[in-house]
Design brief:
It contains twelve helices and seven strands. It is of the alpha/beta class. It has a domain of 197 residues: 3-Layer(aba) Sandwich (Rossmann fold), CATH 3.40.50.150. It has a seven-stranded mixed beta sheet with strand order 3-2-1-4-5-7-6, with helices on both faces. Helix 6 crosses helix 9. It is globular. The N terminus is likely disordered. It binds S-adenosylmethionine.
Length: 288
């Protein structure tokens, strides 16, 4: 494994999810959703054609987005703070691969100014600030500023995050753990605030896109007994916020609903809500 960029110990800034463990099973349920949104934004709003662009996946995790994007662009970089996630990512690419990985934190991106044509950052910003310490989002703001620095003028950032409504209605199990959904919502700046923070960093907002037809967990999302398996829960860090006792109670409830058959109607109802709000929001913005 490569050496970290800095001699300081690297951490996720908040550490409620242990990615060194969950990296082992993360890909069991996680899919790179919104690919056509990301590629469309890079292709349509950048001055260079897509195949000439240099792209960064910031918080690349196990490399699912890079795997789908790398052959469409000139060069790809991935950076992540967790070595377990990076090891999984590197395993997806052959020795001669042109995808370059760095072990580092987004707070201090180790790239020159004006380097990338496009940056994508998927489902990372809920790991950056701890609402117990501050209700502002200093690390998210820092990351938007460093992202701005390393983008070329006219370069595009595509940021994939969740609105509060999506946390409540976009994931069927959220209804069974409302207090944890509140905790997760407190970790994420609202879409409106995120756009303000992008503007403070210097970006011009391009727009917002919500994919309604895709779910982060792919077909496994619809498995009514899915959460009973740890590998399924490892694909959504919301589960990590539950205490042992609440996790036990929630799983008992899911088990009972599976046994008495009521889960089918329950999932139908939840699915109607998800289809209205989606699971994720993509904000794209340009360096002026
Ligand atoms: C939910 S995963 C998303 C991974 C990938 N982007 C995806 O969508 O599949 C969050 C990732 O953010 C990474 N991460 C969290 N804080 C970070 C930081 N400060 N710098 C770099 N990566 C970070 C974690 O290690 C983890 O791989």
């Amino acid at each position: 494994m490569m050496k970290p960029i800095s001699s300081e110990p690297l951490h996720t800034l908040t550490d409620y999810e242990n990615y060194s463990v969950t990296s082992q099973t993360y890909d069991t349920t996680r899919n790179p959703i919104g690919l056509e949104i990301i590629l469309g934004c890079f292709a349509a709003t950048n001055i260079r054609p897509l195949h000439e662009q240099v792209i960064l996946d910031a918080g690349c995790g196990t490399g699912n987005y890079l795997q789908a994007i790398h052959h469409k662009v000139r060069a790809c970089y991935g950076i992540d703070v967790n070595e377990g996630m990076l090891a999984q990512a590197q395993r997806k690419f052959g020795k001669g691969s042109l995808v370059k990985f760095d072990h580092g934190s987004l707070v201090n991106l180790p790239y020159p100014d004006d380097f990338f044509d496009g940056i994508t950052c998927n489902q990372v910003i809920h790991h950056l600030d701890d609402p117990k310490q501050t209700d502002a989002f200093p690390n998210v703001q820092a990351i938007l500023s460093t992202t701005y620095r390393v983008l070329r003028p006219q370069g595009v950032l595509v940021l994939n995050t969740c609105s509060r409504q999506q946390l409540v209605d976009g994931y069927w199990w959220a209804d069974l753990m409302p207090e944890v959904v509140d905790q997760m919502a407190a970790r994420i700046p609202s879409i409106e605030l995120t756009m303000e923070m992008l503007e403070i960093a210097g970006f011009q907002i391009g727009g917002i896109i919500v994919p309604l037809h895709e779910v982060l967990q792919g077909p496994s999302y619809f498995d009514p007994a899915g959460p009973l398996q740890k590998s399924f829960r490892d694909g959504d860090s919301t589960w990590s916020l539950l205490s042992e006792e609440k996790l036990h109670r929630t799983l008992e409830r899911i088990r009972t609903m599976n046994e008495d058959g009521s889960i089918i109607q329950y999932l139908d109802e939840r699915e109607k809500r998800r289809k209205r709000v989606g699971q994720t929001t993509f904000i794209f913005a340009r360096k002026s």
